[in-house]
Amino acid sequence: MYCSELGDQWHAARVEPSLAHLDAASAGRSSRAVIATITRHLEREAERGSYVAAADEEDALVAGRRALASLIGHTPEELSFRDSARTSLRALLNSWALPMSPTVWVAKNEFGPNLAEFERRDFAVRVLPEADVYGHVDVDSLENMLQFEQPDFIHVCHIGSASGVVQPVAQIVEVAHSVGVPVVVDMAQSVGHVPTVTGADVVYGTSRKWLTGPRGVGFVAVRSDSLAKVEVESSDSFIAGQLGLGTAVTELLEIGQQKVFRELAAIGKATRERLRGVGSWEVVEANDEPSALVTLATPPGWGVADLEAARAKLLETGILVTAADSWRAPLAGDQPHLRVSPHLDVRSEQLDALATTIRTMGY
Ligand SMILES: *Cc1c(COP(=O)(O)O)cnc(C)c1O
User: Fold this and answer.
1) Which CATH number fits domain 75-238: 3.60.15.10, 3.40.190.10, 3.40.640.10, 3.40.50.2300?
2) Directed axis angle between helix 304-316 and helix 348-359, to 10°?
3) What is the pTM of this model?
4) Which residues does UniProt assign to the signal peptide (predicted)?
5) Which residue among 62, 89, 192, 210 is least packed, with the fewest CB closer than 10 Å?
6) pLDDT (tens digit, 9 = 90+) per residue, 130-139?
């Protein structure tokens, strides 16, 4: 039985999976329409030449740009395409004329590779105060801190890679803007998953995760009235991928974005309820955290190798999840997690099978 009323529709739009795909946070399953868009364009490139084919598809490119821009609360002109979220962040940091050794404030769920980008450029990184044990940013404390000191910018992972916590980005933007501090948001795990109209100055993300667009496309958008004075150039090479992403976003908007977000939150809740108390695994998020990214802390005494082995064993039994090592969120500690990230086509039998398999692992 599908866990969501959208399950049947989402499933019917895709090729039959050969396993229980509970790994949208790594890469979602593209629809047949997305795959057809890409392959059709690749064929046209061979028939007519890549540049002629791209010019022929100008209307579709504009429509895809408009759809994605509306999802993230930007205008189509503000959007640039890169080939991943990581290269989007790099493009942003490389083009931004920041002072020497700038200061950036980040949340506890910051993505490890982003921290590496900051460290490489000699940024001073400070961690924002938390409101609770889950690591949500404490917006009131932030507002206080900002009265005394202002960083060059605040960088937030809307949702991190190793926890389903959804950061209160719109509130963070509000208090930061009241003192003139720009906010940059990593939307790699949030776009297509939770509401992403936040008012942030700069946002960036990736096509292949919750949007279920193709791998190899990322985007960055800078508001025209951004407090961050920076322009990012597009790297317009993978036109078929941009068209495929456009199809994916259009499909999402046709279902209704709010409906998708509501259903994904309900799926996250059902998943956490099903997995809580199974063996000596521990569900990290509160059940009603409004995301479908679910993490389980490993049984006591487990190292990364045990987790990798568990992930491999699950894959052998036909269940795809992530072994999330601590490099993904180094500020949150060194505990590795099993990451379970079902999309709309998850079935309750798949969650039962996952629970049954991990119950026998570790005591
Ligand atoms: C996956 C991920 C990224 C990187 O995305 P790529 O497109 O692989 O570069 C960045 N931030 C977070 C939080 C992620 O989960």
Assistant:
1) 3.40.640.10
2) 130
3) 0.97
4) none
5) 62
6) 999 999 999 9
Find all residues with CB under 8 Å of 28, minimum gap 6, and list them: 192, 208, 209, 210, 211, 212, 343
What is the rounded CA–CA span in Å between residue 300 and residue 329?
19
The domain spans of the chain are 4-22+256-359, 75-238
What is the whole-number distance in angstroms between the Cα of residue 184 and the centre of ligand 1? 14
Q: How far apart are CA 92 and CA 353, in angstroms?
A: 43
| Nearest atom in ligand 1 to 86's CA | 9
From residue 190, give the alpha-carbon distance in Å to each of 11, 202, 320, 351. Answer: 21, 14, 20, 22
Residue 244 tokens read as 């495929």
Q: What is 4-22+256-359's CATH superfamily?
A: Aspartate Aminotransferase, domain 1 (3.90.1150.10)
> Which residues sit with their C-beta closer than 6 Å to ligand 1?
84-86, 111, 157, 160-161, 186, 188-189, 206, 218
Q: What are the start-end ranges of the H helices in 57-109?
A: 58-72, 85-95
pLDDT digits (tens, 9 = 90+) for 177-203: 999 999 999 999 999 999 999 999 999
Average of per-residue pLDDT values in the chain: 97
Residue 114, pLDDT above cutoff 80 = yes
